[in-house]
Write a structure and sequence with these properties.
The complex is a heterotrimer of chains A (509), B (399) and C (527). Chain A contains 17 helices and 19 strands. Chain A is α/β, with parallel strands linked by helices and 509 residues long. In chain A, helix 3 packs antiparallel against helix 4. Chain B is globular, with a radius of gyration of 21 Å. The mean pLDDT of chain B is 96. Chain C is an alpha/beta fold and 527 residues long. Chain C has 16 helices and 22 strands. About 1% of the residues of chain C have low confidence. The chains are: A alpha/beta (509), B alpha+beta (399), C alpha/beta (527). The interface between A and B is medium-sized, with 14 and 16 residues.
Chain lengths: 509, 399, 527
């Protein structure tokens, strides 16, 4: 194996694979390294109890943008649209919102005729706005100093997309982006349960409550690529949670990328303000003048690189990135599924925005919510092979579990199980095993700074041209040859391979 | 509660305060210091050049940097190569932001194998910490605990020797740890006057005793407490730059034009071309490769011209016997090509001197320019010539 | 009865209405201002609530009044005189205090006592805020262009705006973006470590809003308050001599000198409209006045839903106004005192009594105060900004006695069970009890007290839901969205009917900019 490459890509997730494949396609000798023993550790279903497997971070498959599929030369993995985009379950009451907006409207009418009547228009408007984000996300982030013609021309296209929203749509987009979800949803709907159904998506993975400005942006972000009519769930992949990454891996291998797993990069070497290679944890030195890191910005810039090569003001900006992980998971092996509709999609157990806000309050003071916000998905309804015959896996996504609260596994599991039992009283007796993933474990096992699955909170000051830090949104870092291509870079989490693709394009420019 | 002291007193205040006969106080970094002790600074200046002036420079900010990465921290921060700083050596150096614009200037003293002292005009504790990310260092602000005196002038060595300090072999920009009358102190052969001189670093608790010892031993050698006015005359003659007067710290600048690179303030010599990475390195390398746009030079205002301009109003030339710190436009023909930021009548050289920022191509030594002066409420332009800095550079400074 | 005829009628004698009237009169328009109350000023009034004790009843400090208005209307000649308010002292729970004084060195040493790091960071922070205020200043004086429009004037406006942002450079543009979108606590976390400092600074990010220090969007309000300008110097807050009502009176005096007529106790019932054109107003007493120009300085809800028939307006405008957020969150307690309060952290009479005392010991204290309000209660331990105007302007109280003004947050307009006398008393007691924790002798000094809830603010001044900014200063309610997309340029869908209150760009505070910009637009349209 040669110890000299044109480029080293760190981290073999969707972004790393896409970056490596893109560089290889343009004739570069590429080495892809990952500290895990297998590729794409986050998307792989791992056994958490004998016979039960789960990939909790891939309950939402994310969006595989056309630009990435085109670059990889693959088709989108075959996908199944769940019947319901989101359901709310409360003691004695459920509201399942179908992706079919007429059916959803009918269900809503039993709570509020007004809301049922508004539903179709509402989902169409949301999708139009997230559709604009889709076009923006497939381009380098525009910035105030964007002046190069080559950067402006694609933006003209995005500008046209913006104008295509129509006069009212454009104003609506500008009005909605900074808004708190609660204000927007209270303007739109009368029924608390409808507001809560939509609002849960707006606080996903944020340390913010529905009253916080910018949560509408978060909602729209995670609606990119969602099926029409959905306010939450995206399609899932028939061939498993790692269907996309497996396809990308195939392309990467076919294009001759050298892959080394089980060895983490521990140092990016720099000489004369330019990248000269990487050191792996077995002390192996690899020479390369380009490094694309898809691990989070803090790890890349504060640990992999000797900070003396960076301007202290830049370091300060990196240290100011708010990660603030607050999402945890409990994976349940059960012998019987709870009797809830829409379990192949997202079932939220929070029935009103005030409860959601109260769940957030504790996190402001660094403590776990007394009544956490819990969302359930039965992944074995999608992939029956992930559990023994007749048994099931139910994943609970839990907010708010602040990273610094240092919550114990038992306390977390107890709180979540009792929250579920509040809605599904018989649930605890069906549990065969459970396995907890706290933010601390997310940091330790997946290398996510502060356990943030977002690689940096999707707050308005940390997206687009502000991601990962202001002035460096176009993937090139201040050290020549160093690029960021992970979810911490534009366009952020859940947009599969796009940051990697944009980083690779920045390399090739 | 009604009368709260706004300004701080230096550790020498008990001795200096009674000496300030005309209440000529000023602020320096929030401290109350003497502009002059006597009503006029003439004698204080004369002592610096002919005997010894004793100047309270305690308001300087002082930091102790220790730990295994102390040298790395300073080296990545400043423009000179700190890794080559020997034990007992003192480096004068500027430091820059990422764009190569000067933040501050000061000295780095290597006190022992792992400990350095940084002095600066502005507070730099936060900046040190920002630079120390990922490094194993300790940073202590010892400004308040450390008193500092500058003993400057041809007799300064003799005075220290009279006190038993072994400074006979102390080289220029070197330091030594010693005891004077059981007071532990550090003496560095440094200063801000361009003359033979020393700076004395002592625990604040010992400050008054040290002062008394110096006055007692120095009286026979003509020691005179000197204030900032005298110091200012000396530093202009020595061509030494002053923060907030001759240039602004980059973060304080309101517009980019108010920032300066080391090259633009005559400190290009202090920008190492061979050292490891430091803040602003890339910008400074690029700047070095370009033709220099601005320079910081000495101006000598021609006496004939002054005399003529004042004679037009039937006046004898009026001379700034205390240094001015305003801004005076400098012209070449009809075009403004720069501005002077400090100036004074040099009692020693008998010349009107100024320090000025001049644009290319007008900054070459010997270049003939005009500086604006005011004669009886009217703006005039006096002839001026670019001179090599320092204006005054006695051999005894280094010998 | 034939209607009295004017060129322009201004509804509401608040400072913006008066400014608009003054500019209209200056341009030769025969202008009348109609004020419902017996005093002018709206929320900027001085009233002798108790014999001998004068209060700036609502708005109590000034810094934002646009200098061009001061110059154009020659307000100093008409009585404008701003007295300095230089210090802010925050008592801490451990008995210590944090002070910011008028002198830079003194403030630096004081902060250094708590955090040398922060004392250093403050220099850079202050510079940045200065830059940010400079960056926003031109926008305050700019007519908001419509980003969805392709009309030449809007495109020109957008280009101008784009050019302005580009001229800031990337670094300052990004810094501005942060200020516009972040929470003040997060923003300050990037700079400082000392909690009481962050709390006191972030307090100015929550004033008048229904946001907590951790709510995104509060950093902008922080900047809004940083923009204070007196005689061209940024960030200087002061007292008007004679209270804020004297500012209103100065503007009124200037307007009268320019020929405007000003009537008090002249409540407007509705705007008369004929054939889609405003023709005048009908007063509550049955009188009618006619004019081709009618300007409402009232807030958007009153302007569009009360004064005219909403059915005559486009549905989307009515929707926008209905969902426009007011949510008053502040109250006021005005005290007449027999002597001076003795603060435990700074005993005796000292310079701190000539400045502001901020009850903001920690960010968590403020956030918890917000939590109470979120769920429909007034804060048990509220944020308070306390000033004693009689220390600076002795005319406000009888000799030896004092007036204390306590601005209180949060007191939500929508309080559980609604506001009534008992709740007002409980609120007033919570305020006085909390201040007494820091100044134990306060209760023994109180001669009279006036407690003002958001419901009172609404009732007395007419500001909907008692919002002191005539609508929240949230990003989605600013600039070309204030108060409604397409109607952010002071015009309304009814010809001849205009808006000029704080509910329009650039918003609230005693700034006067909406009144001036509106008058300019009206005069341009009339040409």
């Amino acid at each position: 194996m040669p110890s000299r490459f044109d480029a080293v890509v760190i981290g073999a997730g969707a972004n790393g694979l896409t970056a490596a494949a893109t560089l290889a396609k343009h004739g570069q000798q590429v080495l892809l390294v990952d500290g895990a023993n297998a590729l794409t550790p986050r998307s792989r279903a791992l056994e958490f109890a004998p016979g039960f497997r789960c990939a909790p971070l891939m309950v939402d498959a994310g969006w595989a943008p056309p630009a990435v599929l085109r670059e990889l030369g693959i088709n989108a993995p075959s996908a199944v649209v769940p019947r319901y985009s989101v359901s709310v379950a409360q003691p004695g009451m459920t509201l399942a919102l179908a992706n079919d907006s007429a059916a959803a409207a009918d269900a809503i009418r039993s709570h509020s005729t007004h809301d049922g009547d508004e539903w179709a228009v509402f989902v169409t408007r949301l999708r139009a706005m997230s559709g604009f984000l889709e076009s923006l996300y497939q381009l380098p982030a525009p910035d105030i100093d964007t002046t190069k013609l080559g950067e402006i021309m694609p933006l003209v296209g995005a500008g046209r997309k913006f104008r295509a929203l129509g006069r009212a749509g454009m104003m609506e987009m500008l009005r909605v982006l900074p808004m708190p979800a609660r204000d927007y949803l209270e303007d739109e709907f009368q029924s608390e349960v409808v507001r809560a159904a939509v609002g849960a998506g707006a606080v996903r993975d944020m340390r913010q409550g529905p009253r916080s400005g910018g949560t509408m942006f978060n909602l729209l972000h995670y609606l990119t690529g969602a099926p029409g009519g959905s306010v939450r769930a995206r399609a899932w992949w028939q061939d498993g949670p790692d269907a996309f990454t497996r396809a990308a891996e195939g392309v990467t291998r076919a294009r001759g990328v050298t892959i080394r797993t089980g060895h983490a990069a521990v140092r990016v070497l720099v000489r004369d303000h330019a990248v000269s290679g990487v050191v792996l944890d077995d002390a192996d030195e690899i020479f390369a003048s380009t490094v694309v890191s898809t691990v989070d910005p803090a790890h890349t810039l504060l640990h992999l690189v000797d900070p003396v090569w960076l301007d202290p003001q830049f370091i300060r900006a990196v240290r100011n990135i708010r990660f603030r992980g607050c999402t945890a998971f409990v994976q349940y092996a059960v012998d019987k599924l709870p009797d809830l509709p829409g379990l192949d999609g997202v079932v939220t157990l929070t029935g009103d925005l005030t409860s959601l806000e109260r769940a957030y309050d504790a996190a402001k003071y660094g403590r776990m919510s007394e009544r956490p916000h819990v969302e359930l998905t039965a992944t074995t309804l999608r992939w029956p092979s992930h559990a023994p015959q007749g048994k099931h896996v139910v994943v609970a996504r839990v907010q708010y579990v602040p990273y610094e609260a240092g919550i114990s596994e038992d306390a977390l599991a107890g709180a979540v199980t009792s929250a579920i039992a509040g809605v599904v009283p018989g649930f605890p007796s069906t549990v065969l095993h459970h396995a907890v993933i706290t933010p601390e474990q997310l940091e330790r096992n997946y290398g996510l700074a502060e356990g943030a699955v977002t690689h940096g909170e999707l707050a308005l000051d940390q997206v687009l041209f502000m991601r990962p830090v202001p002035g460096f949104a176009r993937h090139a870092m201040p050290i020549r040859g160093l690029y960021l291509g992970g979810a911490g870079a534009h366009p952020g989490p859940g947009v599969l391979g796009m940051a990697g693709l944009l980083a690779a394009k920045a390399v090739l420019r | 509660m009604n009368f709260v002291r706004v300004l701080r007193a230096t550790p020498f205040h008990a001795r200096t305060a009674p000496l300030v006969r005309a209440q000529t106080w000023r602020r320096w970094a929030g401290y109350q210091v003497a502009s002059a002790y006597e009503p006029h600074p003439d004698r204080e200046y004369a002592a610096i050049r002919n005997a010894a002036g004793l100047i309270d420079v305690s308001p300087l900010h002082k930091y102790l940097i220790g730990g295994p990465h102390a040298a790395r921290l300073l080296d990545r921060m400043v423009t000179r190569d700190v890794t080559r700083c020997e034990l007992g050596q003192v480096l004068y150096t500027p430091w820059c932001d990422g764009d190569g614009k000067v933040l501050d200037d000061g000295t780095i003293s290597r006190l022992d194998s792992r400990t350095y002292r940084l002095t600066s005009a502005e507070p730099n504790l936060r900046w040190l910490h920002m630079n120390a990310v990922g490094l194993d260092v300790t940073i202590d602000d010892v400004s308040a605990q450390t008193a500092a005196l500058a003993l400057q002038g041809p007799n300064s060595r003799a005075i220290l020797q009279a006190l038993g300090a072994n400074v006979g072999n102390l080289q220029y920009f070197r330091l030594t740890h010693t005891n004077v009358r059981d007071i532990p102190l550090t003496i560095s052969r440094t200063g801000y006057t361009g003359d033979l001189g020393y700076e004395l670093w002592v625990r604040a608790d010992d400050a008054v005793r040290l002062w008394d010892a110096l006055i007692e031993a120095g009286t026979a050698y003509g020691i005179v407490p000197a204030g900032i006015w005298a110091l200012d005359l000396a530093r202009i003659e020595a061509g030494l730059i002053m923060l907030d007067v001759d240039y602004f710290s980059a973060p304080r600048a309101i517009i980019p034009d108010q920032k300066s690179s080391p090259f633009e303030i005559n400190l290009g010599w202090a920008v190492s071309t061979s050292k490891g990475p430091f803040n602003g390195q890339r910008a400074l390398d690029a700047e070095r490769a370009r033709a220099q746009q601005w320079a910081f030079v000495g101006l000598e205002i021609k006496w004939d011209s002054l005399e003529r301009l004042f004679a037009e109003r039937s006046l004898a030339p009026q001379l700034p016997t205390v240094a001015w710190r305003t801004s005076a436009p400098v012209y070449s023909g009809d075009h403004q090509v720069g501005y002077a930021t400090s100036g004074c009548w040099s009692p020693l050289l008998k010349k009107y001197l100024a320090l000025a920022h001049i644009q290319a191509p007008h900054f070459g030594v010997g270049s003939r320019l005009q500086m604006e002066i005011t004669v009886e409420h009217r703006r005039k332009r006096a002839d001026a010539v670019v001179r090599k800095l320092p204006f005054f550079d006695p051999e005894r400074k280094r010998a | 009865m034939s209607a009295a005829r004017y060129d322009a009628i201004v509804i509401g004698g608040g400072h913006n209405g008066l400014v608009a009237a003054a500019y209209l009169a200056r341009a030769g328009k025969k202008t009348v201002v109609l004020e419902r109350r017996h005093v002018l000023g709206g929320a900027a009034v001085t009233e002798e609530i108790f014999p001998g004790f004068k209060f700036s009843v609502f708005s109590y400090v000034v810094s934002l009044l646009r200098p061009e208005i001061i110059r154009d209307l020659d307000l100093p000649r008409h009585g404008l005189q701003i007295l300095p308010l230089e210090s802010t002292v925050t008592p801490m729970d451990n008995g210590d205090y944090l002070a910011a004084w008028g002198d830079a060195d003194e403030s630096r040493f004081e902060l250094e006592r708590h955090s040398p790091h922060d004392a250093e960071a403050m220099v850079e922070f202050g510079r940045l805020m200065h830059h940010m205020a400079m960056a926003v200043k031109p926008i305050l004086g700019m007519l908001p262009p419509d980003p969805a429009s392709l009309s030449p004037s809007d495109l020109k406006g957008l280009l101008k705006l784009g050019g302005h942002f580009r001229s800031l450079g990337a670094e300052r543009f990004h810094a501005l973006h942060k200020l516009m979108t972040m929470s003040s606590a997060d923003y300050l976390d990037e700079w400082f470590e000392f909690d009481t400092l962050k709390a006191t600074k972030s307090a100015s990010g929550i004033i008048g809003t229904f946001l907590g220090p951790r709510s995104p969007g509060s950093a902008y309000v922080l900047l809004h308050h940083y923009m204070g300008e007196i005689d061209g110097a940024f960030r200087a807050w002061g007292f008007q001599r004679g209270g804020t009502g004297a500012i209103s009176n100065a503007i009124a005096s200037a307007a009268r000198a320019l020929g405007a007529e000003i009537r008090t106790e002249a409540a407007v019932e509705r705007v008369t409209v004929s054939g889609g054109r405003a023709t005048g107003v009908a007063l509550a007493n049955g009188d009618e006045l006619s004019a081709p120009i009618v300007v409402s300085s009232l807030d958007p809800r009153r302007t569009f839903l009360d004064l005219v028939d909403p059915k005559a307006l486009p549905a989307d405008l009515v929707t926008d106004v209905r969902r426009y957020k007011f949510r008053g969150s502040s109250g006021k307690v005005n005290l007449a005192l027999s002597g001076l309060p003795d603060f435990t952290c700074m005993p005796g009479v000292g310079p701190h009594l000539r400045g502001a005392v901020s009850i903001s010991p920690s960010v968590e204290y403020l956030e918890r105060a917000y939590d109470d309000a979120k769920y429909g209660e007034f804060s048990r331990h509220p944020y308070m900004d306390i000033v004693i105007p009689s220390m600076i302007d002795p005319g406000m109280a009888p000799p030896g006695k004092h007036v204390m003004s306590i601005f209180v947050q949060y007191a939500p307009f929508q309080i559980n069970g609604g506001w009534d006398d008992a709740k007002r008393d409980a609120f007033g007691n919570a305020v006085i009890d909390t201040v007494s924790r820091y100044a134990p002798n306060l209760k023994s000094l109180i001669l009279h007290k006036q407690v003002i809830t958001p419901a009172d603010i609404e009732r007395i001044t007419g500001l909907s839901e008692g919002n002191i900014f005539a609508g929240e200063l949230a990003l989605q309610q600013l600039f070309f969205l204030r108060p409604s997309a397409q109607w952010a340029k002071y015009a309304t869908p009814i010809d001849g009917y205009w808006q000029c209150g704080s509910g329009t760009h650039p918003g609230g505070g005693i700034m006067g900019a909406p009144g001036r910009l509106a008058a300019q637009q009206i005069l341009k349209a009339a040409r």
